[in-house]
Amino acid sequence: MAEKQFDLVEKIRQVKRPGTSQLIWMGVGLIAAVGLFIFMQGFVACWRLTALPGIAPATCGGQIIPPVTTPERTPVPGETVVITPTIAAPQAELPPPWDGASRVTILIIGLDFGDWTADRSGPSRSDTMLLLTIDPITKTAGMLSVPRDMWVNIPGFGYNRINAAYYFGQSYSLPGGGPELARKTVENFLGINIQYYAQVEFTTFEKMIDTIGGVCLEIPREIRVGRTYEHSVLLQPGYQCLDGKSALGYARARDVNQGIINGDVERAEHQQQVILAIRDKVLDPANFLPLVAKANTLYNELSGGINTNLSFNDAMRLAMLAKDIPLAEIQKGVIDYTMMQDGTVNINGHAASILRPYPDKIRDLVETVFGSGSVQPLATGSLEDKMKAEAARVVVINGTGVEGMAARTSEYLKTQGMNVSGVGNTTDYPDKYYSPFPGKTIIIVHAGKPYAYQYLKTLVNFSSQSQIVVDFNPDAPEDIVLALGSDWNANNPMP
To answer: Would you tell me which of 115, 199, 259, 386 could form a disulfide with 451, CB atoms 3.0–4.6 Å apart?
Structure first.
């Protein structure tokens, strides 16, 4: 064994070191390899003869064909629009965990008829786009439906029907896929913040309704529902209880031959009607607690047909919040024919019917559903920056038993940028929510000021949910009342 090792060492020693010319050729080879790699990288990135994932860079020649536009920057009806990606689409970012105070908006996406056929080539387009929004401070909610043929600017792809956003996101394997590009497109179109999306498969929707025992609602007239005429059911006018398949068919019917008079607008109204019927069934006292008890099981059974960026825990928190919102506080809105106009364009040589929006009228509807100011630019920066920009009117009340504590706390909060509009004792501001000398500090919220609320919640470091009271009162002279209890004496952050 020792002799073999010795022979190997001798052979290694006898190998000649590379000469100067060899080193030069090795360097040339390395440079050529790097150059070939860069060339092939660009060549593959711009390849169009076969399908490859991702978007071709804007530097690839011969692909940017801007549409003919009017002075309002929308394509001229009848002109040919060639749809190609021109810029990188927005990156997908996970939404931050819900803080329990901020408004939450979810885009519900249902796909078009093609999902039902096994022979469909390529991704589907979104057939349904419905926004659900909840404001936990005011305990109000809203629903807003967007027609699938709305002519909008899709990030990275130019103008097209809004239902194409899902298709492009899936076709080009963008971050977050179709749901994320659809979410961003609707967000840009309406000028509101949409945190979450949920794309629901038809079979899952049917199963969900069957799981809760069907839904009951008012059918306006005879309406034929079903995937095909041969497999359809004629719903009779009046109060009807529907199983999952019939409820889905009712929510999807849009043709005049089915009995739908007002096309997509009426269909959107029916979809909202079905959602409220689901709400009524789930919140029925006989159903609510049993459903909550088996929430984990139901989630596991249904989650395979739901593509969402909303966590299970946040979904449960939102469900518990939604049950406390009265029906009268749920605002419904559908973009109807007073807010848009029929039009036609040629997309890649194919005639397409579109709906051109009237932005001012749609903006008014958004403000009605989401509340005044909801379409303004969102506050940016840290929680402190947002709190300052919000300028909530805060009253500080002394219930600690220590003279001057409210005044000291008020001055401290002002140094932090808070808008303190009043200071006093519990006798100056009597309220049913606290005693003259409460043991624990309490926050009473009268208006939707989530950043001030969240800032104070963090500052006080509550040990019990009972220390937070939401008493929505738009006529109150203050937005938030901070009633200091005896616990504040030892736990306040003031120097």
So the answer is: 386
Q: Which amino acid is at 53?
A: P
Around Cβ 485, how many Cβ atoms within 10 Å?
Answer: 23
Segment 117-131 mean pLDDT: 76
Cβ-proximal residues to 344 (8 Å cutoff; 6+ apart), any chain: 77, 78, 351, 352, 353, 354
Specify the number of domains making up the chain: 2
284 assigned to some structural domain: no
pLDDT tens digits along 252-269: 898 898 999 998 899 999
The last residue of a domain, from among 326, 341, 370? 370
Tens of pLDDT, residues 379-428? 456 778 888 887 889 999 999 889 999 999 999 999 999 999 999 998 88
Based on the domain organization, do 351 and 392 belong to the same domain? Answer: no
Tell me how far CA of residue 349 lies from CA of 81, 124, 345, in angstroms. Answer: 8, 20, 9
- Where would I find the beta strands (DSSP E) of 379-457? 394-398, 420-425, 442-445
Task: Report the CATH number at residue 345.
Answer: 3.30.420.590
SS3 213: coil
Q: Is the pTM of the predicted complex or chain greater than 0.85?
A: no
Residue 393: CATH number of its domain: 3.30.70.2390
| Sole residue written with tokens 């398949």 | 245
The owner of tokens 């500052």 is 459
Helix H or strand E segment including 180: helix 177-190
Listed residues 370, 396, 412: the one ending a domain: 370
**Residue 86 placed within a domain:** no
Determine whether 158 is exposed, middle or buried from the number of CB atoms within 10 Å of its CB (0-12, 13-18, 19+): buried
The two structure tokens encoding residue 335: 């973009």
Average pLDDT taken over every residue of the chain = 77
In a shared domain, residues 300 and 191: yes
Question: Which residue reads 């002002």 in tokens?
Answer: 414
Output the pLDDT for position 292: 73
∠ Cα 374 378 380 (to 5°): 160
- Residue-number span of the structural domain to which 121 is assigned: 104-200+294-370
Residues 359 and 389 in one domain: no
